[in-house]
Amino acid sequence: MRAAVITFPGSNCDRDLAVGLEMAGAEVTRVWHKDSTLPEGIDLVGIPGGFSYGDYLRCGAIAANSPICSAVKTHAEKGGYVFGVCNGFQVLTETRLLPGALMRNAGLKYICKTVGLEVGTSDSDFLNNYTAGQIIQVPIAHHDGNYTATSDELDRLEGEGRVAFRYADNPNGSDRDIAGITSANGRVLGMMPHPERAMEDAHGSADGARLFAGLIGAMATA
Amino acid sequence: MKARVHVMLKNGVLDPQGEAVRHALGALGFDGVEGVRQGKVIELDLAAGTTEAQVNEMCEKLLANTVIESYTVELS
């Protein structure tokens, strides 16, 4: 399985995401935001956390219009896998590959702590290593993670089984406790929590490692 | 020529920052502030001949996130 991890100016979880994918067995190429093409034969694109372009204008807005993001959109439209974490989720909503938007946390504070997440479904290449309804422990670290969408859009996400994760105890005001969602074809996942920071017991939780292992296992058999 | 773009959260989208400002005004003794909505103003210096349609396209593509925000354009 071949993955590309993009680095924008201000990305700070790009190495962690690359290491997480490598630990699960992926071959990872790092890609710079000014590149306009992805390496040949890439199965998965990882969009990391951080503060791309200093969060200027809106979180993820400028990254979503960078040269590499045109290639990411094409990759997703052809059925390729895309995984966005934290700022990466914000970039995916700004590109409209995922619906809704991430607004300032309801309490206006930056929140950095490990939270409980309820797995929404295991019927997903990203989530097959979990059981629906299971609570896992994964850190969050964000100021703008308040997921917002119209009630029609929220109903559609729930009806189509596209809510990947919900907060067990909503920290940021997100509509319907949503922490992560997938695209209609299930190949794009965006989530605010950081599974790449929960890879081994020394991190306080190894629950994130199961996402990477499950995804790479699913792609190996696909 | 110049354009001034006002970007506001759409009606119905909760504005936590505006709410915090409303509370702070109340704490300062300004009674009667029933609502605060916070937005942004973006000023553009434009080459002569730039059309309003082009500015609208800039808003749609980058300056506003039309999922949650609306915008108005003033040309001068």
TrEMBL record, chain A:
The active site is at residues 86, 194, 196. One of its GO terms (cellular component) is cytoplasm. Its EC number is 6.3.5.3, 3.5.1.2. CDD domains: GATase1_FGAR_AT. One of its GO terms (biological process) is 'de novo' IMP biosynthetic process. Keywords: ATP-binding, Cytoplasm, Glutamine amidotransferase, Hydrolase, Ligase, Nucleotide-binding, Purine biosynthesis. It holds the Pfam family GATase_5. InterPro entries: Class_I_gatase-like, PRibForGlyAmidine_synth_PurQ. One of its GO terms (molecular function) is phosphoribosylformylglycinamidine synthase activity. PROSITE patterns: GATASE_TYPE_1. SUPFAM superfamilies: Class I glutamine amidotransferase-like. It catalyses: N(2)-formyl-N(1)-(5-phospho-beta-D-ribosyl)glycinamide + L-glutamine + ATP + H2O = 2-formamido-N(1)-(5-O-phospho-beta-D-ribosyl)acetamidine + L-glutamate + ADP + phosphate + H(+); L-glutamine + H2O = L-glutamate + NH4(+). It is found in: Cytoplasm. Pathway: Purine metabolism; IMP biosynthesis via de novo pathway; 5-amino-1-(5-phospho-D-ribosyl)imidazole from N(2)-formyl-N(1)-(5-phospho-D-ribosyl)glycinamide: step 1/2. Its main location: cytoplasm. Part of the phosphoribosylformylglycinamidine synthase complex involved in the purines biosynthetic pathway. Catalyzes the ATP-dependent conversion of formylglycinamide ribonucleotide (FGAR) and glutamine to yield formylglycinamidine ribonucleotide (FGAM) and glutamate. The FGAM synthase complex is composed of three subunits. PurQ produces an ammonia molecule by converting glutamine to glutamate. PurL transfers the ammonia molecule to FGAR to form FGAM in an ATP-dependent manner. Part of the FGAM synthase complex composed of 1 PurL, 1 PurQ and 2 PurS subunits. This is Phosphoribosylformylglycinamidine synthase subunit PurQ. It comes from Planktotalea frisia. The gene is purQ.
From TrEMBL, chain B:
NCBIfam families: phosphoribosylformylglycinamidine synthase subunit PurS, PRK05974.1. Its main location: cytoplasm. This is Phosphoribosylformylglycinamidine synthase subunit PurS. It holds the Pfam family PurS. Part of the phosphoribosylformylglycinamidine synthase complex involved in the purines biosynthetic pathway. Catalyzes the ATP-dependent conversion of formylglycinamide ribonucleotide (FGAR) and glutamine to yield formylglycinamidine ribonucleotide (FGAM) and glutamate. The FGAM synthase complex is composed of three subunits. PurQ produces an ammonia molecule by converting glutamine to glutamate. PurL transfers the ammonia molecule to FGAR to form FGAM in an ATP-dependent manner. Its EC number is 6.3.5.3. It comes from Planktotalea frisia. It catalyses: N(2)-formyl-N(1)-(5-phospho-beta-D-ribosyl)glycinamide + L-glutamine + ATP + H2O = 2-formamido-N(1)-(5-O-phospho-beta-D-ribosyl)acetamidine + L-glutamate + ADP + phosphate + H(+). The keyword Cytoplasm applies. It is found in: Cytoplasm. HAMAP family: PurS (MF_01926). One of its GO terms (molecular function) is phosphoribosylformylglycinamidine synthase activity. One of its GO terms (cellular component) is cytoplasm. Pathway: Purine metabolism; IMP biosynthesis via de novo pathway; 5-amino-1-(5-phospho-D-ribosyl)imidazole from N(2)-formyl-N(1)-(5-phospho-D-ribosyl)glycinamide: step 1/2. Keywords: ATP-binding, Cytoplasm, Ligase, Nucleotide-binding, Purine biosynthesis.
